[in-house]
Amino acid sequence: MGILVDLTKSRPPHPSEDILEEYVFGRLPEVLTARAEEHLLICPACQDALEQTDRFISAMKVAAQYPALAATTVDAGLSSLGGFNA
Length: 86
Ligand SMILES: [Zn+2]
Fold this sequence. Notes:
Elements: H1 2-9, H2 17-25, H3 30-42, H4 44-65, H5 70-81
Helix pairs in contact: 2-4, 3-4, 4-5
The structure holds zinc ion (ZN).
Zinc ion (ZN) binds next to α4.
């Protein structure tokens, strides 16, 4: 009983958006990467957040590489996130 209570209490807080962003970029220090991955395994909410961050950054990278396509690509990226339907 005590163990279950302790597990609940010791659940780490959600990593911030900044942390997830650095994680996607692969710039997170090793210790924080391990902690973030550990958290992501048990937290569907953060898995969603990571996926959205990943998708957004991918769209931004494409936009940076192909400025001519930037508008359409970013639009498509935002549309796929939902809530930006014209
Ligand atoms: Zn979380």
